[in-house]
Amino acid sequence: MWQAQFSNGDILNAINEDGKEILFGKVLARLDDLESLSIIMDDKVFRVRMEDGRFSAYVGENDPIHFFASGVDIDSLDNIRPIYFVRETVHFGTHAAALAPDTFPGTPAVNFTALGFQANLAGRNIKRYLAILPNGSYIIQDE
User: Fold this and answer.
1) Residue 73: C-alpha distances to residues 31, 32, 68, 115, 122 (Å)
2) pTM here?
3) What residues have CB less than 8 Å from 124, skipping those under 6 apart?
4) Total structural domains within the chain
């Protein structure tokens, strides 16, 4: 589940108090005051700060791990925007559909959830995100 925090103290969750899904477009509509975006998985919280591109991960016993965009002067980042998406795989099999039509197509399996930022640096667009695996491990990706 994602959670957005804004400079005025507002917090917007992917699911509201009534259990209804909130569209991520509500976060994108408030980019000017978006402070951070988090992914919450059980007892793990992964966060990216929009003002400086700093990532943090709180895993298990709430021990923060902070790391910055290596090789990038964060003061030089311009127009920072969030990256959030879920990469899934659905397996289709025609023989499986004939044998078990109630289960076709297969349930999507999450490959990873992406959390990060894209920004302008010296006139070019950069992207950096955490690929958070379902087991809570993560790797950093650059594009």
Assistant:
1) 22, 21, 9, 20, 10
2) 0.79
3) none
4) 1
